[in-house]
Specification:
- The protein is α/β, with parallel strands linked by helices and 406 residues long.
- The protein has three domains: 64 residues, OB fold (Dihydrolipoamide Acetyltransferase, E2P), CATH 2.40.50.140; 207 residues, 3-Layer(aba) Sandwich (Rossmann fold), CATH 3.40.50; 87 residues, no CATH class.
- The chain is built from eight helices and 22 strands.
- The protein starts with a strand and ends in a 5-residue tail after the last strand.
Length: 406
């Protein structure tokens, strides 16, 4: 394979180091650190870019550290165990601000990234894959399993459960629902199956373990600032960072008792309840009927009678569907990584809320959507490090209605 010497200049959206080849093409180098001078081996050629791996570090970056995990970087679970945490936080802000300027054409900048101070032991959920003989995580950009016994990102009880499964033979251990203190086996199924089969005898089976209160006897629960959430469906993997995000959304929303909140893509109602408890009325909108049922139970359990939920697609809502007589004061959106659909943008603009809280896990689609929300100006933006040691980052943005296109 061809080798070249390059200097890592910055980072890509997936956490790779970015450099220039001698022919001017961009090359993405997994495990590269800004400032590294390295010899690389090209692994994938494309007309305008390439991918490569490091064959030798000539001069290490001042941001480079020795990885503290024996399967890194072979395992695809982490992206940044080779750089300092300070460098990781800086690059995440750079990535957000680059997207805001380059894609959104915006001058607003994220100046702050909130952290819990805990870079390991934060994940309350893990998905393990099997190759028929062992359990582990996939290698980057592949379905090849890297066997693990523990993971630095997992909470202690999850690591304990993983260790027991590996010790007892991974396939037999997940054959019927696995039990451990405060750990539930949420799903066991072949990778390509849509069923919740409780067998894992086939190659490419996967098992999902989730940490939480109540173990297997009752539905798992998480507690956030006095509110209890039943976990059946999506819930952020970092509970402590979720509290930071919820508090920031609550601060930006600034709800009053005479105001109405609408929460689109509400899932099991996390933001609807956390922010909506300050409002006079709050309504969560979610297309998944199972999530809607859980969200209603969460509202009842927390005695928030002024909060309700409706099953609907965010791109097909209107004042009649939402039973609104006046425009909502605030709309929260927390869409999937692909961002808002055209229909959702249209319906939000027709609702004309005074302010919008946009929560995003992808800087590029966030920047695109902020540009599409004409008549709204981004006023505040904050990053939250929901996923330390990985390239992912959470963002919370406040937009105010200004009645003129940006």
């Amino acid at each position: 394979m061809e080798t070249q010497n390059v200097t890592i200049e910055r980072y890509g959206s997936g956490g790779e180091g970015v450099a220039r080849l001698s022919d001017g093409r961009v090359v993405f180098v997994r495990g590269g650190a800004r400032g590294d001078e390295v010899e690389i081996r090209i692994t994938k050629e494309q007309p305008r870019s390439a991918r490569a791996e490091i064959s030798r570090i000539i001069t290490p970056s001042p941001h480079r550290i020795e990885p503290d995990c024996k399967v890194y970087p072979e395992c695809g679970g982490c992206d940044f165990r080779h750089i300092t945490y300070e460098e990781e936080l800086d690059l995440k802000l750079r990535r957000i601000n680059d997207a805001l300027e380059r894609i959104g054409g915006l001058t607003i900048r994220a100046e702050e990234i909130l952290t819990t101070g805990q870079v390991d032991g934060y994940r309350n959920k893990v998905t393990l894959h099997s190759d028929g003989t062992s359990l582990g995580f996939y290698k980057p950009e592949s379905h090849e399993v890297v066997p693990i016994e523990t993971c630095r990102l997992l909470k202690d009880d999850l690591n304990e459960a993983v260790g027991k499964m590996v010790e007892n033979n991974p396939l037999r251990a997940v054959g019927s629902r696995f039990k451990a203190d405060k750990v539930a086996c949420e799903k066991v199924a072949p990778r390509e199956s849509a069923d919740d089969d409780e067998t894992a005898s086939d190659k490419n089976a996967k098992v999902v373990l989730r940490s939480g209160k109540n173990g297997m006897e009752k539905p798992l629960e998480e507690e956030l600032d006095g509110l209890t959430f039943q976990i059946k469906g999506f819930f952020q993997v970092n509970t402590d960072a979720t509290l930071l995000l919820c508090n920031k959304a609550r601060e930006y929303a600034g709800m009053a008792k005479d105001e109405t909140l609408i929460d689109l893509y509400c899932g099991i109602g996390t933001f609807t309840l956390f922010v909506g408890r300050d409002a006079g009325r709050a309504l969560g909108v979610e297309s998944n009927p199972n999530a809607v049922n859980v969200a209603k139970k969460n509202a009842q359990h927390n005695k928030l009678d002024h909060i309700d939920f409706v099953e609907a697609d965010a791109g097909e809502i209107n004042a009649d569907v939402l039973n609104l007589e006046i425009a909502p004061d605030c709309v929260i959106v927390d869409p999937p990584r692909k961002g808002l659909s055209q229909g959702a943008v249209r319906e939000i603009l027709q609702l004309k809320p005074k302010r919008i809280i946009y929560i995003s896990c992808d800087p590029a689609t966030l920047a695109r959507d902020l540009k599409r929300l004409e008549g709204y100006e981004p006023k505040e933006i904050c990053a939250i490090d929901m996923f330390p040691r990985t390239a992912n980052v959470e963002i919370c943005c406040l937009l105010n209605f200004v009645d003129t296109p940006q």
